[in-house]
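Reopening: GCN5-related N-acetyltransferase still failing for me.
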Amino acid sequence: MITIGGLTAEDRPTWENLFAGYNRFYGRTLAPELLDRAWREFASGERLHALGARLDGELVGIVHFLTHASTTSADVCYLQDLFTDEKARGRGAGRALIEAVAGWARARGCARIYWHTQTSNTTARRLYDQVALDKGFMQYQIPLDA
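Support: Ran it again with your exact input. Result attached.
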């Protein structure tokens, strides 16, 4: 059975492992200071938020999200990172995490939730096509080297 809830200090090693898997999928490795910063932000609960999916008590999925202002609506919720362990895929963890973020955002008066994924991420897109609308937008970036 999948349950969704906040992350605890004891979850940090498993969270790091899951987040590393997410980042490997996208071809990147995060510096330890970025992991520490994200964890601190989740703990404060002011700017960044995180939830975990548990399967029989074991943390098997994570979601990170935030809200921001919009010029055309009430605030919106950006679902930034979503990842489930391979052993839990197809068991409802991803869907449950998305639904939990939707409930969180709805309770705070957000107008919508949105996220990005690579067009080649067909596994995730099968779920996303069931739970959300593809509005046809493309993402452009200008990297700002600090």
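Residues 2-131 form a domain with the Aminopeptidase fold (CATH 3.40.630.30). If you still see a failure, please send the error message rather than a screenshot.
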